[in-house]
What we know:
The structure holds two protein chains of two kinds. By secondary structure, chain A is α/β, with parallel strands linked by helices.
Amino acid sequence: MSAQTPQPAPQPAREGARQPVLSVRDLRVRMGTPRGVAEIVNGLDYDVHPGETVAVVGESGSGKSVSVMALMGLLPRTATVTGTAEFEGRDLVGMSDAQLRTVRGNGISMVFQDPMTSLNPVLTVGRQITEGLLAHGDLPKRAATERAAELLGEVGFPDPRGALDRYPHQLSGGMRQRVMIAIALAGRPRLLIADEATTALDVTVQAQILELVARLQAEHGTGVIWITHDLGVVAGIADRVLVMYGGRCVEDGVVDDVFDAPAHPYTRGLLGALPARLGPELDAEEPPELVTIPGTPPLPTDLPPGCVFWPRCPVRSDPRCEREQPPLLEVSRPQVGGRPAGLPHRAATWCSEGRP
Amino acid sequence: MSGYLLRRAGQSAVVLLGVAIAVFALMHLVPGDPVRLALGTRFDQAAYDALRERAGLDEPLPVQFLGWIGSAVTGDLGVSFRSGEPVTMLIVERLPATVSLAAASILVALLIAVPLGTLSALRPRSFVDSAGTVVSQVGISVPEFWMGILLILLFAGVLDWFPPGGYVPLSEDPVGWLRSLVLPALTTGLVSGSVLTRFTRSSVLEALGADHVRTARAKGLPARAVLRWHVLRNALLPLVTVTGVQLAYLLSGVVVVEIVFAWPGLGLLALQAVQDRDYPVLQGAVLLFAFVFLLLNLVVDLLYSRLDPRISA
Ligand SMILES: Nc1ncnc2c1ncn2[C@@H]1O[C@H](COP(=O)(O)OP(=O)(O)OP(=O)(O)O)[C@@H](O)[C@H]1O
Ligand code: SF4
Ligand SMILES: [Mg+2]
């Protein structure tokens, strides 16, 4: 496949730092399609530590959803997943469905984009929470119901017991997303994956949900992968950000490092139209979205041989750009007392701007 | 809820009245004198006048209609021109045969459609799916009389497992009833089953792609629970409606199958009435079919609102 040199696993430099809850190495996903083999995810490397929020951004079709669905084993049968994804020391890739089932909704939970369709319209809220509890532990039904009410209280339902008998259509979008979060929290996950979990909600409700997740994360030390189009959200909640393009990570690092000094032309394009100051205090009327960069992203069935961004890149001057894939290299590393500390800021580009 | 039910029942009554008017008008506006026909070769003026008077045919049409509908409400549908027997009795006599056949056919149809449609949807383009497609295509396109004759030839002729035709009342001989039911029920059941299989397949396929199924899987539910509670529970809802329509159709008598199997059902009764221009019987039968259809629709709506919490608002 690629001649890319394997990168040393990014290690937290802090002495005695906790082990990552999730450690993804060279994750690849291919799918057979009528138009040929689609290379949807092409070698992702990242870690998520307990209590940490990693944001994943990138244009539509860059493989964000597929890459996390691959972790959960939720892709269609036509998908082939390779690489490793160690969750608490166990490799999720290649786990049997029965083994994965013990992880899903238990160790790793997911919250999806559309709260209108993500819940089953014909089952009660209570039932949809308890069934997960009952599938994972052998607690009696009554205890599961108790716990479901407890969870609904935790996510902010004023009358948790009454809400158990509600059907999704009787709830607002924000309340439904709270139910989704309650379902996700039911198994006390160590990793929570939110795939555009607030995209469909209006700004006020979005802020409430973000706050809720941040609070629960702080309480339980959950690692979070937050997929979003909204760079304001990234700035507001994420510790680190991973920029995806064409199924690859083109840049990652601590949010401030990446936003203050983006090293990849694609990231610079994304950030280009944004106001200089990013933060939760940003004008709520107009949340910053990914700007449109001229051109369209490559089809996963037809990726360019060199840099994936080459066809659209405004600064493609290096002769290697067209032929050779740029490896993901360290741009800078935070220094503490003259020694490297924390996680590096990395980018995959041949251009040297922004490099030390 | 009960307000909704009342409103629906009221609507149904209005529709039924409309059907009654249409049927009555049609019967009395088509050319041909039914009384003359009923008397056949034994025509004489005195008998003709007597029959006309007994049937109330010498009165103005609106009066005739009101009289007919008035007695119909009390269950009196008049008397047959042909046999002079009460229409209600003629219909009630035929009901057991028709209801038995309709119920057995729907059972056969669902027993085929739900498993086959579900399996096909779970494994699209697999062997089961292709086989299911072929079988249901054949089931939809082969005429019922042809299917019936084939079944008779094989199971009654060659194998001699079941009688080739005729109806045995349940009260007389339960085993004989069941045996007499098998071939006609298979014939109509295969046809209805083919339609329902296609329907089930597309419905399950659609449900499988629903977002909430992904949620259910992400919860770590066992595959069986996902299928049972998040795919089938939703996919089979619309099947209730389609099954209701099929049942209404079967209860209106399946003329062709009744002919092939000499099955004394409502279809044959209606057919005979058409041939004889036995208006009271035909009117009664059509009114009954409309009534059954509306009633089943009402039942389906009720059932639906019990099964789908979004409806009963
Ligand atoms: N089941 C599938 N079969 C074939 N291709 C697929 C399938 N699912 C996704 N893809 C392709 O994989 C690519 C990445 O899809 P993915 O859903 O991961 O994008 P995304 O980054 O999440 O985009 P969005 O922001 O729109 O959610 C797309 O080109 C998509 O067409
Ligand atoms: S490698 Fe070349 S084409 Fe790709 S982003 Fe860098 S400069 Fe642009
Ligand atoms: Mg997505």
